[in-house]
Signal recognition particle protein
Amino acid sequence: MFDALAERLESAWKTLRGQDKISQSNIQDALREVRRALLEGDVNLQVVKNFIADVEAKAQGAEVISGVRPDQQFIKIVYDELVQVMGETNVPIASADKPPTIVLMAGLQGTGKTTATAKLALYLRKQNRSTLLVATDIYRPAAIDQLVTLGKQIDVPVFELGTDANPVEIARQGVAQAKADGVDTVIIDTAGRLQIDQDMMAELAKIKQTVQPHETLLVVDAMTGQEAANLTRTFHEQIGITGAILTKLDGDSRGGAALSVRQISGQPIKFVGVGEKVEALQPFYPDRMASRILG
Ligand code: GDP
């Protein structure tokens, strides 16, 4: 577990041997190593600063535990703080008392939003939850086709009204259809742009206001590291998210975006995408991610 950081901390402490307890000077050396590890792990700079300040306060207040090496004690403080900031445990997806549960998917184009919509449907099926997918991205005909194709592949119905209808109206009718069909969960795929765009945000806000979803999930590409923080801030301020899906964790990213998303929005990562296939979706576990981020 996070061997790289553990090694670095050990060497930082070696220069201070003889001081075998946590002290002001070795805390600063150790914090520098943690800061470096987090930045290499793709965590946003501001998020790192806040995190380090919290760890510093905890380390300074820590009681010396006899028989425990200070570097090990320190690393435990860092690890525990990471896990705590990311929410301790997995937070499952909402399940409405009165179906259908309405899930709104939000995010930029190319992050894996449409794929995640299908992945989520397959995941819910394994929990005996039926789904209806709704295609509202009228700006790219290929996006509707992609969702229809994925729906066929996993044998889940897709509601669409082509590219001439209004996205808000498609979402509204999609939810009505899910109710009429007695479907457990309706997942609404929305239009993404390459960058944050006010028209896109306004449309998402309108869809949200109209269908009143139980979940608004922001899809975040783990490979975007630092940028994930700005993205989360904007979506959370303008739309209000209830959670996130972190995609492309099968890539070589250390996943620091997970810490940024959680610290900035206060909302949990609920799932991670670990591949292009529809099966490649897993619940998010803060402890596993903490180890990965620390490297
Ligand atoms: P959208 O524009 O946000 O709807 O993105 P898509 O769902 O079309 O996905 C964009 C690309 O990312 C596609 O090539 C997907 O196969 C790929 N993709 C999506 N999720 C993952 C993932 O978890 N891992 C990997 N490696 N690729 C993914």
Q: What stands out?
A: Strands lie at 101-106, 131-135, 158-159, 185-189, 215-221, 243-247, 269-273, 281-283. The two ends are 8 Å apart (CA to CA). Residues 107, 109-115, 146, 192, 247-248, 250-251, 273-276, 280 surround guanosine-5'-diphosphate (CB under 6 Å).
